[in-house]
Write a structure and sequence with these properties.
Elements: H1 7-16, E1 19-24, E2 27-37, E3 41-44, E4 47-50, E5 55-58
Antiparallel strand pairs: 1-2, 1-5, 2-3, 3-4
Length: about 60
């Protein structure tokens, strides 16, 4: 899975409706499409995840 590391990756994934997986460490904690992007968090599949605490990766 390719990680999302820059803001452009998050916005592209949101616009293209690509599914992303959310990890804390090695544990998968969420999956879905990006619904909202803020400076501190990303909303994926109805849940909000802190950008500092999580790793976001393309699910395909």
């Amino acid at each position: 899975m390719k990680p999302l590391t820059a803001d452009i990756h998050f916005y592209t994934a949101m616009l293209d409706q690509k599914p992303v997986a959310v990890f804390i460490g090695d544990e998968l904690v969420g999956c879905g499409r990006i619904e909202e992007i803020t400076e501190n968090s990303i909303k994926v599949g109805g849940a909000r995840y802190l950008r500092q605490s999580c790793t976001f990766k393309f699910a395909d």
